[in-house]
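Sample pair:
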Amino acid sequence: MKAVQLPKRADPLDVVMAAVLAAWLSFQVLQFWVYWDSRLFVNIHVTLAAAMTATAFIQSKRGLPRWLVGVPALAIALYTALYFSPYGAAAGAELTSSSVPSMVVGGLLLVVVVVMVWRAFGPTLALLAPAFTLYMFLGKLVPAPLTVPSYGVERIFSRLTLGAIHGELTYEVANYLWLLIFWGILIQVSGAGRFIRLIAQLLSRRLATGPALAAVATSALVGSFTGTGSANVMVTGSVTIPLMQRAGYRPVQAAAIESAASTAAAITPPVMGIVPFIMAATLGVPYTTILGMVLLIAVIWYVSVIIYILAASARLDLRQADAADESPLISLSEAIRSAALMIVPVGTLVLLIFRNWPLVDAVTWATVTLAVLAIALRVERSPGFWWEGIKRAAVTASAFSLAIVVVQYVTEILFFSTLIIRVGAVVDVLGTGSLIVAGLVVLVFGVLISGPLPPLAVYFVMVIAFQPVFYELGLPPSITVFTAFYIGVLGAITLPKAPSTMVAAGIARAPLLETAIETMKVASAAFFIPFLILLAPELLISAPGVDPSSPGRIALVFATAIATLSALSFGLVGWLRGPIRMWVRVVLGSVALFMIVALQQDSDALLWACLATAVVLIAASGGLLPPYRRRASP
């Protein structure tokens, strides 16, 4: 007699997580009809995020960490959610008071936030909170110019508990960005990844560079809705890096190409992470204006990566290699369904953004569109697979929300201690009134802090510190915020953190340091782009406050940038149709410096000369390789 198989019991923690997620989504939907006090809105959001990540922590751990860390963290998060609810002890006017109970509850919540951020992102970001807290209390003992004014203990605690949570950053995350991240991850879960793999397979079978150009194409495609370099690497790199290694690329090269291409996701429209939305709010312009500003810059980045691939594939002689991925392709019907799961929701978001819908409305309808299509098309049918994907999306978005709380906390201390004002004064002195020197100081400072800090923290620190400097040099605020945003992006490939490079190196099983150095070669143009932004702001086509330039001038600057930065990439690789001598490589690299001087002099004649020099040098060194595959002769 056949045994009856009993249904598997649900994990109680899954039930808790489902309840928290249901409350959260209801909370998001209710904001369309119910007016929430902004402080109450943020408090509920942060406590639910803490509860979600604490539950995930308990599920992932066993033994003492589960009971000593996870359970108390979950209990504190749930109690804080009740305490700050409309019917809790802190309801009404009590919510904003500096009473001792409120400060204690807020302080406990911040401890949970720091612990969960450590778990999700490592110690670097998490340790910033206690480090800056100590600085607030002990900064009065530090020598000038880093001395902190003497504040009372009660005033510091009041400002840094509830006050640090109620900032603009956490409100923007609570309002729409959590849902945006949740939506982006659900697109990957829905089955759209099959369409991405299909594109990678088709491109790798037709191009001489093998799957390397497929890595660029799929990274740009996925980057259009992830907006994060490391997330992009996880989605596309698991497909393209093994393909590149089988085609003949060294593990370090495969990881570097994927890391550089995926990092450009943060400047690939329409979704470019959290910072561009804050930029639009800061400048008081529609989000479509930010899309126009970033367009040519993204093209320059991607072209530089493609140039490196052309040179590297020639050096490896991949034209004679069988670079194709010979695994079977998915069926036509499955390809159409998986393509629809990516194109339709992303297209819905873009359409509504261009129609100037509020972002929260646009993201909500894009999420509804994705849910309807996922049910109708059923590319992924397993309920267990969907639940695991939904959990991953919710926990990832929640961890990001808590990371923003830490960034908001550190930003509050930078203002409260007046440290950021003194940093800006030092940069002003070092800048010496020159755009090139100021740009170099800003780039070095930004790269140094973008290693340990996330892009959002880099953005706020740099905007606050450098706004007066750039204003004195005659640059409008739009250039300051865009420069700060862009340099924050470079942190994804800048040591010691380099999250995009770290993930890519892990997939390729390549040494991190060697991969990071190679990534800087692949994305060499990326480190010249800040000078383009400062010296040729006309490249940011729709930047507010920038005097409009003629299409001819924009085309000349753009073409010169492409040619000179291509020469730089060829010089770094040292190969075109054959090896390039060292003195020629030095000359190729120096053309980029010639372009910077020409832009500083604001001379079209020098730009034409620079463009001609770059083209002649590239042609004399061997020219460009055709991208289509050539079969080896028998």
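The chain is about 75% helix and 0% strand.
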